[in-house]
Design goal:
58% of the residues lie in helices and 5% in strands. The chain is mainly alpha-helical and 159 residues long. Helix 2 packs across helix 4.
């Protein structure tokens, strides 16, 4: 199951999944349920309208969220699985004080994805800490189940 990705695919997947606006959008919907597109700015006030629109367009384009009539933006199955992966990454990062003992959720996700990125292009994660190797396996499985993230061009996210 350890399907290596090309360097370009790994870089694209990590850049997309580590985007702060995407992490914030997926985590917010996972934590609090569907969000009306009109309420995004009020719900995530630390992100600009452009960042929110880009994250929303990207997430919809990659099958992570959908617009549900009457409720708003909600996670798809792939989006819920990504939220679970983000949670596992954040738990590992918190346990290891990565990147710092106290930091924002999205910073933890970006840091863990940065640690995992080099191992996505090889068959094995030689020398990786057991928990990090487990996260690599989960990430590779998620990417294998959602190949559009690494292998399809889509809207570019604003960091």
């Amino acid at each position: 199951m350890s399907t290596p990705f090309t360097s370009a695919e790994a870089q694209r997947a990590v850049e997309l999944l580590a985007s702060r606006p995407l992490v914030r959008l997926v985590a917010e919907i996972d934590d609090n349920g569907a969000i009306s597109p009109r309420r995004l700015v009020g719900t995530l006030p630390d992100l600009s309208r452009h960042q929110l629109r880009s994250a929303s367009d990207t997430a919809r384009g990659h099958g992570l969220i959908r617009i549900a009539p009457g409720t708003g933006l909600e996670l798809t199955e792939a989006g819920r699985e990504l939220a679970d992966l983000y949670d596992a990454m954040a738990r590992w990062a918190r346990r290891h004080a990565v990147p710092a003992p106290v930091c924002e959720f999205s910073s933890r996700i970006r840091c863990v994805l940065g640690l995992l990125a080099p191992s996505l292009t090889t068959e094995r994660a030689d020398g990786a800490e057991a928990g990090l190797a487990r996260l690599r396996t989960l990430l590779i499985q998620w990417l294998a189940d959602n190949p559009q993230v690494a292998r399809m061009s889509g809207p570019e996210l604003v960091a």
